[in-house]
Amino acid sequence: GNRTFSQPYPPFSSIDARNASGYKQRLWKWSLQNRLHEITNVPSKNVTIFSLKWISTTYISKHEILGLQYEDAEACSKDVSSTFRIDDIKRSWNASLSNISRDRFPVLTLEASVSSGCYIRSICSELGKKVGTGGLALSIVREKFGSFSIKSANVAFD
Length: 158
Prior knowledge:
The protein is an alpha+beta fold and about 160 residues long. The protein is built from four helices and seven strands; from the N terminus they run E-E-E-H-E-H-H-E-H-E-E. The chain has helices at about 25-30, 60-80, 85-100, 120-130, and strands spanning about 5-10, 15-20, 25, 45-60, 105-115, 145, 150.
């Protein structure tokens, strides 16, 4: 059945948040300043998971994970014409994976139907915490939004 719960906004979202002194700024600014610990109450919103279906399991190496994350960081920087956080992202991934002795990791392909505003990356992280392994979203494909879907799309090329 459906599961509705309160989901905190992720650290790099644009929602306003206040520290104990009442100073308010966007959550992503607190994150960039390494001051998230000052936020007394991270804003959250109610979201619903209507369905979550396991499709398949494959495996990926530590080297492949780093490659995918580097590619994503580079692609994002081209989208915004900036090298915003690329070096930080690479350092963080290297540090995280260097502390793990295993080289292969399971990759689950899941299909989710969720309410508007649900953060899929946060759901993946929470699922990983619950099973004691950690988790992340390597790739997200939005197949449907409201009444629009990939299956019913008509694309015209000039």
